[in-house]
Amino acid sequence: MAPSTSSAITLRINGEKYTLPVDHRTTLLDALREHLDLTGTKKGCDQGQCGACTVLLDGRRAVACLQLAVAAEGREITTIEGVADGDRLHPVQQAFLDLDGYQCGYCTPGQICSALAVIEEHAAGWPSAVTEDLRPEAAAPALSTEEIRERMSGNLCRCGAYASIVQAVARAAENAADEVKEPVA
Questions:
Q1: Burial class (CB in 10 A: 0-12, 13-18, 19+), 87
Q2: pTM of the entire structure?
Q3: Is 165 within 8 Å of 100 (Cβ atoms)?
Q4: Predicted local distance difference test score (pLDDT) of residue 134
Q5: Across the beta sheet with 60-63, what order do the strands follow?
Q6: Does the pLDDT of residue 51 top 70, yes or no?
Q7: If residue 18 lies in a helix (H) or strand (E), which one and from where to where?
């Protein structure tokens, strides 16, 4: 008897559970778009090079075109549809809107998901390829333009909105840092 090449899986996406039958070779991107009609995550290169399909898996960036849906079972998946709080945009989304961090908008969902992770990674003190002082006792580097560009480099924008994207990430990170500093009433 040949082993089965499909099974029913349960995915936790944006706080909701979805059970669906999938071929074991189905990518997370195709499960989201074709099986669950969550089309905010875009299919760009389908080779993991453009970042248009970036989602968050347990809070970390992942290109959904290279992630098998069966391997995402049991993990918390956040897509662009789960970023806003109802009708209220997430501060990263608002910064992209305010600073024109998009042009055609195709890469924007992946850019925003990546920006969310960038801000968290930086706040946690993770270094990037351009971080100069990697010693454990060194203070976290400032989230400079160079740091943002490096950290966002896995997301391509064919329209060239990079300057606005960097500004939007910087503003959202600054706002997030300000929220941390404010005392809770």
A1: exposed
A2: 0.92
A3: no
A4: 87
A5: 16-23, 6-13, 76-78, 54-57, 60-63
A6: yes
A7: strand 16-23
